[in-house]
Amino acid sequence: MTPDRKVLLDLYYYMRLTRTLEERLVALFRQSRVIGGLYRSLGQEGEAVGAAYALDFKNGDLVAPLIRNLGSMLVAGAKPVEIIRQYMGKGDSPSRGRDLNIHFADLERGFIGPISPLGDMIPVMAGALLAARMQNRPIVAMAFIGDGGASTGAFAEGMNFATVQKLPLVVILENNGYAYSTPTRQQSALLRLADKAIGFGCHGETVDGNDPVAVHEAARRAVSRGREGGGVSLIEVVTFRIKGHAEHDNQSYVPKEEISRWAAKDPFVSLMSHIEANGRISLQDLEELDQRAKTEVDQATDEAEASPMPEGSEAELGTFNDGFWERAPVTRQ
After folding, report:
1. Residue 2 above 80 pLDDT?
2. Beta strands 169-175 and 141-146: pairing type?
3. Per-residue pLDDT at 4
């Protein structure tokens, strides 16, 4: 079934915003204006956007992204200027220069920043859902994990606990072929990672991760299942990381033929096939969304470049409850 016009336009907009914003970050990185690493989701924008779009953030749903799930945070309400300031380590970034990339959270808008120990956000989200149940808040949570992270103990413990408790948790397992530089076949004996769900006793399924509509439909079913008391769902999205682990990784461990084959499966190609099938979306509609994304990123870049770096005198503040985080961030005229 072809999704309605609004869903297709929203998926297209958030995917375009993600790609445009990341392309701008790459330009800033090459000018040495990004501090630390830069992690792109090229080729994976569709699964992050499609999955998160199934959540109801206005009613308290939560998402825990990985570093390449910028699209899910944009769907939740994160602003491009926040992302650019954060990557540039600015004093008025969400973490005030204390951390980088998308390592920040906003529970009001429904996203919890990623942490480097992969797998750990599964038990964290299970705990958040257990707390919500005790507070009679009927929310659903979604956590992203990679094929490598799904081999960790924290992933197994979190999945087992959440399944036993029948918590409304949706886990998006990104099978992008490599855990950094380790091929999936060398760190899991399973041909289908969704089969991990069998061991936990929860629902599991595999979808084409480069088809944003297919991912959205699977996530939407999982969210409904969780909201209706059906517990945990594990959705394996089969996709590919077109770029290296980060901009500093030349990806020499991946055969060039494999990259070319997956580049032809760009998620925008798949989305366009759904848009053409809908028949109610014109080329002008899409061009307006392209321009909207570019304008937002241009304005965000200007604002972020005008932002100050952190004040050295504030470096030791905010560790304890000293009111630092309630104060307005530094603004230098």
Report:
1. no
2. parallel
3. 93
Distances (CA, A) of 49 to 7, 248, 301: 11, 25, 22
- For the entire predicted model, the pTM comes to 0.96
Residue 212 is which amino acid? P
Contact 219, 209 (CB under 8 A): no
**Burial of residue 168 (number of CB atoms within 10 Å: 0-12, 13-18, 19+):** buried
> Would you state the structure tokens that stand for residue 320, as one six-digit string?
């304890």
CA–CA distance, 204 with 221 (Å, rounded to integer): 12
Predicted confidence (pLDDT) at residue 120 exceeds the cutoff of 60: yes
Q: Which residue has the tokens 């797998």?
A: 119
Q: Are 107 and 77 in contact (CB under 8 A)?
A: no
Contact present, 37 and 258 (Cβ < 8 Å): no
DSSP SS3 for 139? coil
Cβ neighbours of residue 289 closer than 8 Å, sequence gap 6 or more: 9, 12, 13, 16
Strand partners, 237: 174, 207
